[in-house]
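In response to the reviewer comment on reproducibility (Comment 2.3), we provide here a single inverse folding case reported in full, input and output, so that an independent group could reproduce the run without further information from us. The structure tokens appear first.
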């Protein structure tokens, strides 16, 4: 049987039916957006493609306009497979992207704002974003192994080529320690580096650091706590609010010796090898970090009523994850109205007697000030960019609610 080339493998992954067009896209494609569509009526591929272009036009500005991205080749040919039965249509949408991961995620999220296809009501749900480079990476690793075994001595290998091959091999070395993503050196090393997630462990492996372990969440696992009792432990978490919360908890429950942080606004997973080494060299003893990050005594504890309300709000916002919707709640935390996140500012200005606003999005300073003006008590989102919280308003994220529950 004829051996498949890298180009054939990628083109096959992108979709056999699109043949040459998809094969052209495969050279620059980084990610594949996979979505599912359901429509209350009979629709066909041109209707779906038309709805995607029509209803996202102007939504994200000129830089992320789908028509312009398609013309420039940064978005590939949109593949739609759809079937109809008993007056309803279902199918899949695949969009190749050569944008970076953040821009690709924004494009994917914009698909879920589409609510009609042709004359029919419809919903689109993004199922996953796939990194096509994984296929290429596996191909490179396997092919490199074959080439290394094909001859006895290497001829004029450069340091750069060696490092690239070794980097790909290191990615395969990620293992687990009691169910947590970890480098292969965690168990036997005298020191460990505690990071937030699997992507951080992978990035440290690329830099040649094999003793990292991820806590995978805001609650520190018991396995990590036990490791810190016998090993020198360095906390290496993102320089954002989430990283601050995780570090505060680590200082409470684990025996941390050093603290390292990326530059302001950066995450561990996006650092280069040079930046990782620099950040770890600049780590500070826990006594220095503790001054800033150890929890300060609370001025006032939530009342029993407030605690119950926050618990109920946490359950509500969990149900909103991934919907791009917002809910306005009354004094009894009963639903007044549910709207799309893009309509939230306008709706808050019009609706009366709103006690809480919860939504699947980022809380901005402007939104917080508007909510405070309207007498809202709770403003809850997935993340927050609020620099100064207005008086009589509680600005909370999903992580904040989980933290409050954990402290109870």
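Designed residues, in position order:
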């Amino acid at each position: 049987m004829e051996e498949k080339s890298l180009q054939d493998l990628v083109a096959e992954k992108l979709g056999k039916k699109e043949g040459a067009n998809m094969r052209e896209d495969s050279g620059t494609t980084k990610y594949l957006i996979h979505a599912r569509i359901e429509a209350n009526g009979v629709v066909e591929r041109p209707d779906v493609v038309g709805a995607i272009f029509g209803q996202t036009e102007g939504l994200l500005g000129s830089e992320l306009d789908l028509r312009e991205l398609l013309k420039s080749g940064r978005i590939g040919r949109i593949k739609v497979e759809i079937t109809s039965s008993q007056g309803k249509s279902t199918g899949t949408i695949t969009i190749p992207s050569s944008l970076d991961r953040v821009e690709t995620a924004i494009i994917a999220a914009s698909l879920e704002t589409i609510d009609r296809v042709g004359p029919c009501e419809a919903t689109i749900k993004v199922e996953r974003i796939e990194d096509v480079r994984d296929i290429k990476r596996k191909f490179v690793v396997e092919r490199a192994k074959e080439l290394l075994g094909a001859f006895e001595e290497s001829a004029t290998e450069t340091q750069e080529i060696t490092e690239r091959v070794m980097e790909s091999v290191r990615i395969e070395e990620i293992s687990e320690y009691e169910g947590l993503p970890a480098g292969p050196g965690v168990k036997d090393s005298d020191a460990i580096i505690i990071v937030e997630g699997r992507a951080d462990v992978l990035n440290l492996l690329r830099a040649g650091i094999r003793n990292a372990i991820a806590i995978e969440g805001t609650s520190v696992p018991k396995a990590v706590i036990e490791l810190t009792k016998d090993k020198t432990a360095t906390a290496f978490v993102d320089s954002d609010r989430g990283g601050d919360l995780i570090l505060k908890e680590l200082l409470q429950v684990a025996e941390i010796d050093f603290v390292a942080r990326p530059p302001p606004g950066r995450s561990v997973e996006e650092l280069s090898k040079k930046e990782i080494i620099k950040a770890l060299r600049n780590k500070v003893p826990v006594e220095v970090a503790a001054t800033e990050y150890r929890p300060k005594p609370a001025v006032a504890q939530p009342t029993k009523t407030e605690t119950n309300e926050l618990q109920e709000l946490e359950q509500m916002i969990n149900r909103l994850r991934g919907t791009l919707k917002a809910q306005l709640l009354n004094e009894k935390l009963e639903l007044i109205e549910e709207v799309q996140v893009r309509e939230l500012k306008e709706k808050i200005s019009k609706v009366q007697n709103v006690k809480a606003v919860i939504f699947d999005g980022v809380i901005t300073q402007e939104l917080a000030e508007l909510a405070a003006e309207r007498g809202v008590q709770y403003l809850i989102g997935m993340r927050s960019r609020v620099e100064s919280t207005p008086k009589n308003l509680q600005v909370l994220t999903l992580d904040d609610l989980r933290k409050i529950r954990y402290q109870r």
